[in-house]
Every structure is written in structure tokens, then in C-alpha cells.
Amino acid sequence: MTVRRPITLGLTGSIGMGKSTVAAMFAEAGVPVFDADAAVHALQGADGRIVAAIEAAFPGTTGPNGVDRGALGAIVLGDPAELARLEAIVHPAVGEERAAFLARHADAPIVLFDVPLLFETGGESRVDRVVVVSAPPEIQRARVLKRSGMTPAKLDAILARQLPDQEKVARADFVVPTGGSLDATRRAVAAIIACLDARETPLS
Length: 204
Prior knowledge:
- By secondary structure, the chain is an alpha/beta fold.
- The chain has 2 domains: about 1-30 and about 110-204, Rossmann fold, CATH 3.40.50; about 35-105, no CATH class.
- The chain contains 9 helices and 7 strands.
- A 5-stranded parallel sheet has the order 2-5-1-6-7, with helices on both faces.
- A hairpin with a 2-residue loop joins strand 3 (about 60-65) and strand 4.
- Helix 2 crosses helix 5.
- The termini are close together.
- The mean pLDDT is about 90.
């Protein structure tokens, strides 16, 4: 007997492109969403299951509320070796959360993985289709620079670590434009869901 599994969608996009808004639209349409950033925050938060391992590897970077992201960031950012040590703790745990999510939603026709650095980490190889959220650069910059504490220099540094938007768009299976109205964006999401009907569901 053949067993079908959900179509796995990877959702990504550069900073300020509206990825969280689009993820929420998929969720509103009934698609289960796995938020990779939220999973990491939970794992590193108060009573998070990797807090002890991070403290052992990076003494003084945790407290009653879990990982002190500022203290940890000061150690690993700009140091590839230290970042790799951290990733060796975080990535397997996130993988376990991802597997548990898939098991919980094994009967869903589509599931969505919201992964900010999908292409940058090779995550596209772990999903069936990739959705990229994109907006014109001037809209992107205006959105991001409204954020508290954000400066043009900080934004440029963030963008330098991310795959350029045009390359993400070129590698996408679907593109959701977010430079227009919310209704237009919602229609694009609905069109993707409609396109991925049961006939396309991969066999396990």
C-alpha cells in the first residue's frame, strides 16, 4: 500500500520582505506552519532543552530566562569556529523539532517550513518546493529602517549575509510579491495552495 506524506514547502525571503505576514496567511488558510526561529527561541528560552548544553559550551551565556542572546552573539558572531560549535548544538535539536512537527501533521496535504536562511543553509534540499517572498528594494529598506534600533549600516550588514533577493527569486518554485496590497498577497498564497493539489503529493 502506498503511503502519502504532505508536500513540504520552504518559505524564505530577505529581511523586510514580509515573510512573517505570508506565513500567517498560509496558517489562516489551514496549512500547518513550522517557524524555525520560534523553535530556536523555545529551545534557548527558559527551561529550553539545549540551554544546559549551551552553557557548558559557552559559560556565562545563560541565566534564569535561558540563553542571553546578546552575550552569546558577542562570542559567536564573526568567529566561524565558535559559530560552528553553537550550530552543532542548535541544528540537531531543531531537526528533532522539525521531525516531531511532521509527525504531528502527517495527514496534512501541505506543510510549511518558515526558514529565514533556507538557501544559505542548504535547507532547500529538505523541502519539495520553495516559496520566496519578495518586494522592491526601496519598500524593503523603508520597512526595515522603521524598526527600533535599526540603522542603514546595520541593514547593509544583514543584507551582506543574505543571498540577494534576485537570486532567491531565480531559485524559487513560487514567488509571493509583497509590494502591493495585502489582498494581492493573499491571492498569491491562495493560488499556490490551489496549485499544490493532492495529485502532486509525493509518495514516501
